[in-house]
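Hi R.,

Here's the chain you asked about this morning:
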Amino acid sequence: PEIRSRKCTNFKAADVYSAGIILFLLKTKGNLPYLEDKPSKGVDMAEVKDTNPKLFWEKHLQLLGKDAHYFSPEFKELFMQMTHFNPNKRITIDEVKSSDWYNGPVYSKKQVAEYMKIQFGF
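And here is the predicted structure, written out as tokens:
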């Protein structure tokens, strides 16, 4: 948000914000968490994220057709911390690397290959 408003003084915090958006895109296979300049289907998801996080996640589960387990608590926490509107309250890259989600389970090469075959046919 601070880049968009041309008031960025902490570029590392801006990079963490961008990485949080990319993380969400990767998790949801290309779905944006929100549009910063306009509502999506009548809902300002950027505002909802900050004012009613529970509704933010419920709406995304509904839009994605996923159940409540799709977004782990660790993922939700990390995303919310990475995309905090206030850059001074945003976590640092070192804090990202020490987060529970970042340090969670890791798939083996075989598991990744099986997933890629199922999801993408290769």
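One quick note: The chain has six helices and no strands.

Cheers,
M.
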